[in-house]
């Protein structure tokens, strides 16, 4: 099993310290997201990380096609790829908090497909047609293609990922039932273009919380669970393995979710109350969270490994990330090395 991890930052001095610690621990991949109104700019973060590390892969796990032109995205990706010596990956989805916070509508599946194709081709040194114009990175002399991933939660985007993407980022798929649905969709998409699903790199998002008990750990991140549900189910509830009796509850949660506070755990976050108000705590926690004492977390990680999960991005939604990383290094990572 490979492990990635990421953080959100407001200070690059602090990010320097975080990168040094995460690199020394031995994470296989270091990640960030793209939500310009909530934390520092993602390509700047990846450039910084590429210059301060040499071993781990780097990834923007979730960006979107709507806040940047594909030629701008591709040029940024190709630049980071040069600095990172081929270690960089770029992930997209239709867009969530980055768009909600500036009043922009999410991308359609067709727009997501077009941007994925464009970025892959441009970073490989090829030209593409875009809205009647021919795009190319004319400065790129020795291209190293950038793998493009899709964060895919529904059947249409999962099939698209299977058809086209180099990798897939899955959320809320740490149960066998949800994972089986997702893999069926990805495999169906891969079959449409004669691809082998085994050639597609698949990563799972996981809230890994060390605490005296599983309940104590879940109590630390109720707003994170609400945010993941709001993202995963925002377009449709169908085709995602959601039990029928949960659908009205999920709609209620999404109707009250406040994107201005997305991915910001803490006592003042108004989204904290939503998972209990709508009776979704147990269901949502099981889909994407592993919490409790380190030994219990290792057991749960081995459990999801038995379902076929090979790559996990463990989120650091904790107040003391350095203690969390040292616990991970001492008590979790040795069980998988």
UniProtKB/TrEMBL annotation:
Recorded GO MF terms: oxidoreductase activity, acting on paired donors, with incorporation or reduction of molecular oxygen
A Pfam family of this chain: Bac_luciferase
Species of the source: freshwater metagenome
Record domain Luciferase-like: where: 7-310
Protein keywords: Oxidoreductase
SUPFAM superfamilies referenced in this protein's UniProt entry, alphabetically: Bacterial luciferase-like (SSF51679)
Protein name: Unannotated protein
InterPro entries to which the protein is assigned, alphabetical: F420-G6PD/mer, Luciferase-like_dom, Luciferase-like_sf
């Amino acid at each position: 099993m490979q492990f990635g991890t990421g953080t959100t930052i407001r200070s690059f001095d602090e990010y320097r310290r975080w990168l040094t610690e995460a690199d020394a621990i031995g994470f296989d991949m270091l990640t960030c997201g793209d939500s310009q109104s909530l934390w520092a700019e993602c390509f700047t973060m990846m450039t910084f990380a590429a210059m301060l590390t040499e071993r781990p892969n780097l990834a923007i796990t979730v960006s979107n096609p709507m806040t940047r032109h594909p030629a701008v995205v591709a040029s940024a990706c190709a630049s980071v790829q040069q600095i990172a010596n081929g270690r960089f990956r770029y992930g997209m989805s239709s867009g969530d908090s980055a768009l909600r916070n500036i009043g922009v509508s999410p991308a359609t599946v067709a727009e997501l497909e077009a941007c994925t194709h464009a970025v892959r081709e441009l970073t490989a040194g090829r030209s593409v047609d875009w809205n009647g114009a021919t795009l190319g990175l004319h400065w790129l002399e020795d291209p190293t293609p950038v793998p493009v991933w899709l964060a895919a939660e529904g059947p249409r985007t999962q099939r698209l990922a299977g058809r086209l993407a180099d990798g897939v980022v899955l959320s809320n798929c740490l149960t066998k039932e949800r994972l089986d649905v997702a893999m069926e969709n990805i495999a169906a998409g891969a079959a449409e273009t004669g691809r082998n699903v085994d050639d597609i790199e698949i990563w799972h998002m996981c809230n890994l919380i060390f605490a005296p008990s599983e309940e104590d750990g879940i109590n630390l991140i109720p707003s994170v669970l609400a945010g993941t549900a709001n993202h995963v189910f925002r377009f449709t509830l169908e085709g995602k393995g959601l039990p029928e009796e949960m659908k009205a509850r999920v709609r209620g949660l999404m109707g009250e979710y406040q994107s201005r506070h997305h991915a910001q755990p803490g006592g003042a976050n108004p989204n904290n109350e939503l998972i209990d108000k709508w009776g979704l705590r147990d269901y949502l926690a099981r889909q994407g969270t592993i919490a409790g004492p380190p030994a219990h977390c290792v057991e749960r990680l081995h459990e999801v490994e038995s379902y076929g999960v090979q790559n996990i991005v463990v989120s650091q939604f904790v107040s003391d990330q350095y203690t969390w990383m040292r616990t991970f290094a001492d008590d979790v990572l040795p069980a998988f090395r």
